[in-house]
Amino acid sequence: MSAELELALERRIGKRSAAVIEKHLGITTVGELLNYFPRRYLSRGELTPISEVPRDEEVTLIARVVSSSTRAMRARRGSLTDVVITDDAGAATAKGGGSGARAGTLKISFFNGYRAKAELLPGRRAMFSGKVTMFGGTLGLTNPDFLLLDEDPDTPGLDPEKLAAMPIPVYPATAKLTSWSIQKVISTLLETVELGDLEDPLPADIAARENFLPVGEAYRLIHAPETQPDWQRARDRFRFQEALVLQSALARRRAQLASEEATARRPVPNGLLAAFDRQLPFTLTAGQAAVGKTLSGELSQDSPMNRLLQGEVGSGKTIVALRAMLQVVDSGGQAALLAPTEVLAAQHSESIRRTLGPLVRDGLLAGGDAAVGVDGVQVTLLTGSMPTAARKQAMLDAASGTAGIVIGTHALLSENVSFYDLGLIVVDEQHRFGVEQRDALRAKARKPPHLLVMTATPIPRTVAMTVFGDLETSVLDELPAGRAPISTHIVGLAENPAWAARIWSRSREEIDSGHQVYVVCPKIGTDDDGDFSPGEAEPSGAEVESDSAGRELASVTAVVEHLKEEPALAGVPLAPLHGRQDAVLKSETMASFTTNQVKLLVSTTVIEVGVDVHNATLMVILDADRFGISQLHQLRGRVGRGGLPGTCLLVTTLEPGHPSRRRLDAVAATTDGFELSQEDLKLRREGDILGASQSGGRSTLRLLRVLEHEDVIARAREDAQRIVGLDPQLLAHPVLAAAIDEYLNPEKEAFLERG
Ligand code: ADP
Ligand code: MG
User: Fold this and answer.
1) How far apart are CA 655 and CA 219, in angstroms?
2) Which of 130-134, 210-214, 350-354 has the lowest mean pLDDT?
3) What is the CATH number of the domain that holds 503?
4) What CA–CA distance (Å, rounded) separates 167 from 696?
5) I want to staple 315 with a disulfide (CB 3.0 to 4.6 A). Which of 311, 375, 567, 671 is the partner?
6) CATH of the domain at 106
């Protein structure tokens, strides 16, 4: 990397500006500020459509003043200046929005706004920066910063036509630092840095092939473009650079992982796996058999397997993983299964014991079942909330090798858990586990263990290449026979309040015919925001826009109270389940539901993944609009599992046509997980794609959008593979190597270095 980029900012823009930038943006070097790219560009000659301005976040917009009036405040000293601004959309009926003249106006209030009173005169155009909020039915801004555009001193001598076409960069601003203040500092930086001397992280042949701007020129044009094509060319270049840096990092990691030495875990002729296959009550689907073969082959190699297994809910991933675990146990190693929640870990433990049947060895009692002719395997559950004695015993069994299969949550990552000979790690439901956590687990083995990551969230190809670029991918794309379809219906209480009662009589019918019902709520109690176990990332439901309407959302406690009084459910045994209950209560509740004593379970999303109760046929999701698409899809996958058709009711109080109801429409329209995940990505706002849970922090992608830029990602991936293939240490590409280090945050870098 160019030394210039690592230089402290104050050397180039002075102490005062540097201090401001550090305080508000946390940026301290020349390179960081050069890489602080505009989020978008406004056209100086055009007003910003006010209807498209997002609410409740810092925005920058251009508008024209319609009117201004100032009056003294009654209750205290000072004055209030009201300014109405417009985007002219109201007047321009040609746009045909039909929503009337109100659409394009916004009311601004300034307290003691002397400058506003003097400068914001009717007819003037200005750039405004602040939070747009809805107040009493009108859109408003309070005390925003503004910059008059008509007399901008920064552009003397430009002819008006050129000036009107000139894009204005809009930077991610804060309440205290406007976009144009940032722009000003960056223009100083552009003057003081020797842009021509910056070294290019892109290999010359690639830059030439793509016809890219030189890197210094690209920095100038992305920050100070004179025309739209200027910033577009610059952005294309940096976008490709971002893709190449990321793909090279992944390629380097793959190469490092592949060169590691693992213990080969070859199948043995008459072992547990063979006995297990003989007792399996069904035949494997073609997909399960094929993936099983791949896994078996890779486990038999002395380089570590690193594989992602994708498959719809219910596609039978667990059996596939279990067979891989048995192969490892057969060859003398241990396997660990990591689940995202304690409930799920306990469920896995139960269902794996059930599936293994006589092949489970318990404590010191039996050395396996004589009838099956092999030694059994000890299956050990190890979670953070287990009683100390039990946990100590479990840890002892893991460390001594007595436990062949260890099942747990992130508690398995804690430092005092060790294994005798950990050969395989299976991570269930990847979307809750970041790379760092995978690495922490890998560090548990003396030699790198084999790794199998399972996810039921279908992942589009480019996302897989980006987020899971260090893993090879297998897909289970058929469901085992006997899976019944799930029908999904939206229950819109806004248009049909009477349906509220119908939900519970419908539940009663289901229960009367011997089946069971899940009721899912977005909250636990009346004063909380959801249900996250410690260490878990926030489910996407929390990403959904905040409820400015302040409606009361369904909570587990309130719904349980309500249902106890509900005539349609009189006499029905029901129970609450949520993450704040203690582990014993949770597993007891789950057990009562599994054994059909509890007929109706009111829970949070703790049942989102993996929970497997065949007799449950109806799922009612209350305030379903509070959940994300993939979460809803996961949730409804809990019903229709036992050959009985499943029904999912998405209950919402939002009006039809509300943006959040689009997610429900999508979920109701298809059960194809891949289609849904594409839809999900489309509906989510930028930056959410990798999600906090994937990257261990905020999204690391800046210019790259995994769906839009599939071609860029694919090209960069090929380049990266070629570059790293020829030169794994990137010795010939020091600038690219440095860009990788710079790009990844320190933790991420640690995982790359460690490999
Ligand atoms: P996933 O983890 O992919 O959601 P599971 O492994 O939990 O799916 O499997 C769902 C259900 O289907 C389980 O009850 C399992 O026993 C059953 N199952 C798995 N494979 C088959 C198969 N080949 N034929 C019939 N049932 C199967
Ligand atoms: Mg599963």
Assistant:
1) 46
2) 130-134
3) 3.40.50.300
4) 35
5) 311
6) 2.40.50.140
User: Could you identify the atom of ligand 1 that is nearest to the CA of residue 312?
Assistant: 3
Prediction pTM value? 0.62
Indicate whether 14 and 69 sit together in one domain.
no
What phi, psi does 456 have (nearest 5°)? -100, -5
User: Is residue 278 over pLDDT 70?
Assistant: yes
Residue of 585, 14, 9 lying closest to 346 (CA atoms) = 585
Going by alpha carbons, the residue nearest to atom 20 of ligand 1 is 316
CB-proximal residues (5 Å) to ion ligand 2: 318, 610
* Total domains in the fold of the chain: 4
Ligand 1 neighbours (beta carbon < 6 A): 282, 284-285, 288, 311, 313-319, 456, 480-482, 612
Please state the atom number of ligand 1 nearest to the C-alpha of residue 283. 23
Q: Which residue range forms the structural domain that includes residue 185?
A: 1-44+179-198
Q: How confident is the model at residue 642 (pLDDT cuts 50, 70, 90)?
A: confident
Comparing CA positions, the residue from 596, 609, 703 lying closest to residue 233 is 703
- How many residues would you count in the chain? 755
Mean pLDDT of the chain: 82
Rounded average pLDDT over 89-117: 67
CA-based nearest residue to 601, from 635, 579, 573, 582: 573
Contact criterion met (CB below 8 Å) for 219 and 190: yes
Q: 132 and 184: one domain?
A: no
Tens digits of per-residue pLDDT, 695-751? 333 345 677 776 678 889 889 989 999 999 999 889 999 989 888 877 665 444 443
Q: Which of 44-58, 134-148, 349-363, 388-402 has the highest mean predicted lDDT (pLDDT)?
A: 388-402
| 388 vs 607, more confident | 388
Nearest to 362 by CA among 424, 421, 405, 314: 405
Which residues does residue 141 pair with via DSSP β-bridges, in sequence order?
Answer: 108
Q: Ligand 1, atom 23: nearest CA belongs to which residue?
A: 284
Residue 169 pLDDT > 80: yes
